[in-house]
Design a protein that fits this description.
By secondary structure, the chain is of the alpha/beta class. The chain has helices at about 30-40, 70-80, 95-105, 115-125, 140-145, 155-170, 185-195; strands at about 1-5, 20-25, 45, 50, 65, 80-90, 90-95, 110-115, 130-135, 175-180. Helix content is about 35%, strand content about 20%. The chain binds guanosine-5'-monophosphate.
Length: about 210
């Protein structure tokens, strides 16, 4: 399900922005949905971020992230190589600028999967970027997904829920909301936004953030 905000005019054809930023709260299923997007649209360029966090089991340097130390990260910022960066859960994350611009210049739509602060910075730096928030079908579903594993301690879960609340509260800043009730459907909705026919720009109600009661 996609909800669109009204565009700046009511024309029915628009030039599709080719840079898409996907954000969403922890537990919403971003990795599964984006893995499906990769299968459906292998020609998209997926940005590989730099991060100071340690690799998790199975993560490959250069594929999942560029794993760098803090000095290296800072040098990338100082030399202007980073398009946006943010701190998340005590680690630094940033988008290398050159590969994204190279993909766009070659006509390849590009996708960034980043958190809220980074999405805001991309909006400032590249106002033509399209911002998409992946939403849970309801707040209750997100709570279930974040607490369901039962392996984390209560304080960690509560912290994640707090961050998720903050992220969902910013949903109105995003151009589109894609609800992840079904991974394949959510991926198809995203692919349609990234490479499909030009979006409607006529007003449609924007999905409200799920109730947090
Ligand atoms: P994780 O450590 O779980 O892979 O990612 C933690 C958070 O960092 C996720 O919300 C992810 O979207 C975000 N993230 C990953 N790469 C970047 C980046 O380059 N910039 C920003 N701002 N956030 C990122």
């Amino acid at each position: 399900m996609i909800a669109e905000r009204p565009g700046p005019d009511d024309s029915t054809t628009v030039v599709r922005p080719r840079l898409t930023v996907v954000s969403g709260p922890s537990g919403v299923g971003k990795s599964s949905v984006l893995a499906e997007v990769r299968r459906m649209a292998p020609d998209l360029y997926f940005s590989v971020s730099a991060t100071t966090r340690s690799p998790r089991p199975g993560e490959v340097d250069g594929t999942h992230y560029h794993f760098v130390d803090r000095d290296w990260f800072q040098r990338m910022i100082d030399s202007g190589e980073i398009l946006e960066h943010a701190e998340y859960a005590g680690n630094h994350y940033g988008t290398p600028r050159a590969p994204v611009l190279a993909a766009l210049d070659s006509g390849r739509p590009a996708v960034l999967e980043i958190e809220l602060q980074g999405a805001r910075l991309v909006r400032e730096a590249m106002p033509e970027a399209r911002l998409v928030m992946l939403m849970p079908p309801s707040w209750e579903v997100l709570v279930d997904r974040l607490t369901g594993r039962g392996t984390e301690d209560a304080a960690v879960v509560e912290r994640r829920l707090q961050v998720a609340r903050e992220e969902l509260a910013a949903a109105e800043e995003f151009d589109h909301h894609v609800v992840n009730a079904d991974v394949r459907q959510a991926a198809a909705d995203l692919v349609n936004l990234m490479v499909g026919p030009a979006a409607r720009t006529t007003a449609a109600p924007t999905t409200a953030a799920p109730s947090r009661d």
